[in-house]
Amino acid sequence: MAKIAVLGAGGWGTALASMLHQHARSVVLWARRPEFTQELLNLRENRDYLPGVPLPDDLPITSDLNQALDHVTLALVVVPSVGVQDLLEQLPRETPIVLCAKGLGAGGERLSQVALQMGFKTLGVLSGPNHAEEVSRGLPAATVVASEDEDFAVLAQSFLMTPSFRVYTSTDLVGVELGGVLKNVIAVAAGLVDGLKLGDNAKSALMTRALKEMQRYLSAQGADEDTVFGLSGLGDLIATCTSQHSRNRAAGEKLAQGQDPRQGGKAIEGIRSTYLLHEWAQTHHADLPIVEVVYQILENRITFSQGISILMGRKARSE
Ligand SMILES: NC(=O)C1=CN([C@@H]2O[C@H](COP(=O)(O)OP(=O)(O)OC[C@H]3O[C@@H](n4cnc5c(N)ncnc54)[C@H](O)[C@@H]3O)[C@@H](O)[C@H]2O)C=CC1
Ligand SMILES: O=C(CO)COP(=O)(O)O
């Protein structure tokens, strides 16, 4: 039977491992820290990252990477983007990998580009509206696995699809990967809208215009025009901007309440990506107005009301 190694025992890695195991896949969950692995084994619950979800008694969990990778068919790389390169350094380059983080490399490059440059050849990404809190409880969800190698995408689909987790394939690696990056930034903005109580009209306008901004950026990176309207774009934008579970949306709400969401200790992909996308827009003289306003607010360069005025006062144009 194919063996799947889930590398990273945060919320998403734990949810994927648990869900796949319950559907009779051969899965091992790898956590970096031995003491945390022991806690997972003792409690059969990930209290730090996925509290309240019991883990199957016979789900193998280890902090020994060699053991996790022994005879592996597919490795899911499920750590935050800031740790992806570090983890990839430790993997044999022939390991078939699916990258699950929704963020960018340290220089603003796509994580699949980082992996390719490191010598990985068989790779894909997984991205879609998939909150760990729901997938782990067996609630129905759909997602996309993308790879330029269609055969690999189909193979990964066959390993990951279950009756509660519907997996589509795509060969638009760029589009699928970047949809998940951009929507996190927009979710921070949506949290600001919620926290400032700007109303449903404002939130709808933000999300709809954000889709255009996402499309511009994705096209500039070589994505197919339509990918942004799929699960990894519009689908994840809706889920993240409206969800009670979203860490990125919650970060925007905290900002609106005068708190700094960066103090929590957990990485917020949307904040990190805001800085990297701002850099890219500056270098390429690109127009990413929502990203830019979030950046200026994070940097305390503008007030919330100035941010609203900037977006509302842009040049009049046709839709
Ligand atoms: N939580 C969710 O519902 C979903 C999350 N994602 C994405 O998956 C990625 C991971 O997210 P979460 O699981 O929510 O994060 P999390 O914050 O719940 O957990 C992160 C885990 O990664 C570990 N870690 C951090 N750096 C590491 C490194 N260098 N090597 C090994 N382990 C390391 C941490 O110890 C922790 O166990 C993010 O990019 C996120 O955007 C994607 C879909 C759903
Ligand atoms: O990517 C996600 C759902 O698809 C998770 O969103 P958050 O990282 O904002 O919690």
TrEMBL record:
Subcellular locations according to the entry: Cytoplasm
Pathway: Membrane lipid metabolism; glycerophospholipid metabolism
Catalysed reaction equations from the record: sn-glycerol 3-phosphate + NAD(+) = dihydroxyacetone phosphate + NADH + H(+); sn-glycerol 3-phosphate + NADP(+) = dihydroxyacetone phosphate + NADPH + H(+)
Binding site for sn-glycerol 3-phosphate: K102, G128, K183, D236, S246, R247, N248
Record NCBIfam families: PRK00094.1-2, PRK00094.1-4
Residues binding NADPH, per UniProt: W12, R32, R33, Y49, K102, A132, R247, I268, E269
Domain of life from the UniProt record: Bacteria
Keyword Cell cycle: no
Active site: K183 (proton acceptor)
Record: residues binding NAD(+): G8, A9, G10, G11, W12, G13, A132, R247, K266
Binding positions (substrate): K102, R247, N248
GO biological process, one term: carbohydrate metabolic process
Domain called Glycerol-3-phosphate dehydrogenase NAD-dependent C-terminal: residue spans: 172-306
Gene: gpsA
Similarity section: Belongs to the NAD-dependent glycerol-3-phosphate dehydrogenase family.
Chain's role: Catalyzes the reduction of the glycolytic intermediate dihydroxyacetone phosphate (DHAP) to sn-glycerol 3-phosphate (G3P), the key precursor for phospholipid synthesis.
Gene Ontology MF annotations: glycerol-3-phosphate dehydrogenase (NAD+) activity; glycerol-3-phosphate dehydrogenase (NADP+) activity; NAD binding
One of the record's GO cellular component terms: cytosol
Biological source species: Deinococcus cellulosilyticus (strain DSM 18568 / NBRC 106333 / KACC 11606 / 5516J-15)
Name the record gives this protein: Glycerol-3-phosphate dehydrogenase [NAD(P)+]
Keyword annotations from UniProtKB, A to Z: Cytoplasm, Lipid biosynthesis, Lipid metabolism, NAD, NADP, Nucleotide-binding, Oxidoreductase, Phospholipid biosynthesis, Phospholipid metabolism
PANTHER family cross-referenced by the UniProt entry: GLYCEROL-3-PHOSPHATE DEHYDROGENASE (PTHR11728), GLYCEROL-3-PHOSPHATE DEHYDROGENASE [NAD(+)] 2, CHLOROPLASTIC (PTHR11728:SF1)
Residue ranges annotated for the Glycerol-3-phosphate dehydrogenase NAD-dependent N-terminal domain, each copy included: 3-152
Native organism taxonomy: Bacteria, Thermotogati, Deinococcota, Deinococci, Deinococcales
Cross-referenced InterPro entries: 6-PGluconate_DH-like_C_sf (IPR008927), 6PGD_dom2 (IPR013328), G3P_DH_NAD-dep (IPR006168), G3P_DH_NAD-dep_C (IPR006109), G3P_DH_NAD-dep_N (IPR011128), NAD(P)-bd_dom_sf (IPR036291)
EC number: 1.1.1.94
